[in-house]
Amino acid sequence: MISIQSFVFGPFQENTYILYDETKECVIIDPGCYDNRERSILSDFIVSNNLKPVKLLNTHCHLDHVFGNGFIAEKYKLELEINKNDQVVLDSYLTMAKMYNLNAEASPKPSHYIDEGDIIKFGNSKLEIVFTPGHSPGSITFYNQEEKFMIAGDVLFHGSIGRSDLPGGNHETLIKSIKNKLLPMGDAFKVYSGHGIATSIGFERVNNPFLA
Question: How confident is the model at residue 85 (pLDDT cuts 50, 70, 90)?
């Protein structure tokens, strides 16, 4: 059974996720911890729950989702894993941070790329990957079929969708990703988004104005 712990971090109020199971191995997805206080919150949770981080993953590489990549990679000796199409977004991360007048630490380069069909294993658990571009060119969604949940980054929100006006974004592509990749997973799937509260495929199918 996978436990999911979320944290709201950084100036953009981004959701960072730690997923772990009974073995205490965990994966860290989209570490947005921006300053030392937030880094301590994240690391203290790992210590207090006796967790062993084994994976550092990004759903996509916009600055608010990667602020903590460098910290996590160094502290836990982890290599970064992203989709190759978001490499260009990661490459522009520090430049974007300067545009917002934010202090940002460099992110490590990915050790290798992950894509739809790949399986992320930790402890007795696994996450599968579906390619969901549109918000960014390399957005991916991690999901677990047995436990019916997904970590969707900024693709789908409660009552909304990710913005598509940033470089590499495309509204039509984003809608196709949601309708062709996420909605078919079924109404029971819980959706953990990159910002805001969790939702479900069933709720969004009926209530999301962007999917009408």
Answer: very high
- Is residue 120 within 8 Å of 27, Cβ to Cβ? yes
What is the CA 190 to chain-centroid distance, rounded?
14
Let me know: does 69 contact 36? Beta carbons within 8 Å.
Answer: no
Structural domains in the chain (count): 1
Q: 91 to each of 35, 66, 168, 188, 192, how far by Cα in Å?
A: 21, 11, 13, 36, 26
Kindly tell me the sign of the dihedral angle through the C-alpha atoms of 10, 90, 132, 148.
negative
Own/partner pairs, 166-171, CB within 8 angstroms, 24+ separation:
166/62, 166/135, 166/136, 167/89, 167/92, 168/85, 168/86, 168/88, 168/89, 168/136, 168/137, 169/134, 169/135, 169/136, 169/137, 170/133, 170/134, 171/134
The pLDDT-based confidence of 183 (bands split at 50, 70, 90) is very high
Range of the domain at 28: 3-211
Distances (CA, A) of 25 to 108, 114, 158, 166, 173: 22, 20, 29, 35, 35
* Domain containing residue 63: CATH number: 3.60.15.10
CB 143 within 8 A of CB 112: no
Nearest CA-CA partner of 60 in 143, 166, 144, 136: 136
In three-state secondary structure terms, 105 is: coil
